[in-house]
Amino acid sequence: MTSLNQPPQAKPAIRSILIALMLAIFLGALDQTIVAVSMPAISAQFKDVSQLAWVISGYMVAMTVAVPIYGKLGDLYGRRRLMLFGMGLFTLASLFCGLAQNMEQLVLARIIQGIGAGGMISVSQAIIGDIVPPRERGRYQGYFSSMYALASVAGPVLGGYMTEYLSWRWVFLINLPLGLAAWWISHRTLVGLPVPQRKPVIDYLGTMLMILGLTSLLLSITFIGQGQSWRDQQVAGFLGVALIALALFVWHERRTPEPLLPMHLFANRNAVLCWCTVFFTSFQAISLIVLMPLRYQSITGAGADSAALHLLPLAIGLPMGAYFAGRMTSVTGRYKPMILSGAALMPLSILGMAFSPPGAELLSGVFMLFSGIASGMQFPTSLVGAQNSVQQHDIGVATSTTNLFRALGGAMGVALMSALLLALLHDSLPVPVMGQPLIGEGSSGNVLLDSLSAVQGPALQSLRAELLLTFRHLLSISAAVSLLGLAAALAMPDQVLRGREDKAR
């Protein structure tokens, strides 16, 4: 009877649950960007700027730390239960965000919201690993990458309109109908997923050590990105705690019978190389999303709306590259050629942006489009490669580890590139910038743009020419860093994906 009932469940599963999974990805990614344009309104109402940066950073840190935990719990308890929990927590926290009466309540609610978002993003991708053969996963992961790109573009636009015409609270309250719809669809469609038959054993000590280590690491990275020196007492303290906690975590995981993150996975050469590729791809993509609009605004004097449009080619290129790589991976059964092509295109496109004037919008747009395509070709294929490299019972952990490396790459990219930019600009700007966040609480919301507003006439033109050269050096360094991702792609074995196309239909 079991064998007779299995085929009818497997065929509609992919189509019926895809909407719920894509909506979960969209919501989790949307709240990374939708809040940015609402920051001045939030700080104005609460009259508090000291904790303003943590409205975004708290969400990102919590989401990153939660991702690997959800991966293991999904392997132990089943992914349907974890997906519904993550969606429910995210939606409830969104309500608390919208009702917050002070900055402390808002930051706390954002942290809880990030914990829920980590589950939605991580478990969604692991579910695809459960129901789709590796050869077909690239196509579906490409859809997810498109959702990421759409959310990145839609976030600032939706946030701006709701803040302008409704209230900043609707930036969070909009998640209520969307989150409830996603929860209801998931509850009805996420049936028939594999449920582990083994007795769950939770590694409590490993979980606490990972939370402590990753949180300390991400906090230190965030402070560095805000302009603090790594030698600062607070930053050095967090780095020290991170080093000790993560070292103890590795020591403990090697000895516990049911580890949170099996260390044997890091002996898997192909999986590690896929994670390295994801790390460096995210390093470039996220830092470019932050720095390119800033470059355009500071050098041309354009407004925030024009800067957002300037970023559009990169956002368009992401789903293009993801869709193409996903289809080619399904056709050929190989993922390395797509990863290698994207890794080779990335440094060339970044160098093209470095040496194209911001005012030459067409030329700059072409190179930004290429960089988006390069990122899109690597994100879904690297995940598929990592999933293909491990046993089925480790799919959840492999997926969550991929997402962890992706999040760490983005966090380190923004932090290190922002810190490097502030260091390069230290002697150029008319007011000191070191020790200040790049995205701060000034009249424009940005310390660089606020500094430029203090300069007029020929001095401003001279400063902008110097800024052009500074950003050229910064992007050249970014291109050099991307060569590390190319090296990882070159070292990657050229494996054939398991599964046949007809099994996914």
From TrEMBL:
Chief location of this protein within or outside the cell: membrane
Gene Ontology molecular function terms on file: transmembrane transporter activity
Matches recorded under Gene3D superfamilies: MFS general substrate transporter like domains, Multidrug resistance protein D
Keywords noted in UniProt: Cell membrane, Membrane, Transmembrane, Transmembrane helix, Transport
Residue ranges annotated for the Major facilitator superfamily (MFS) profile domain, each copy included: 17-497
A GO-annotated cellular component: plasma membrane
Keyword Translocase: no
InterPro entries reported for this sequence: EmrB-like, MFS, MFS_dom, MFS_trans_sf
Keyword Ribonucleoprotein in annotation: no
UniProt cross-references to PROSITE patterns, sorted A to Z: MFS
UniProt name for this protein: Multidrug resistance protein 3
Transmembrane region(s): 52-70, 82-101, 107-128, 140-161, 167-185, 205-227, 233-251, 272-294, 306-326, 338-356, 362-384, 404-425, 473-493
Superkingdom per UniProt: Bacteria
Compartments where found: Cell membrane
CDD domains xref list: MFS_Azr1_MDR_like
Membrane topology summary: Multi-pass membrane protein
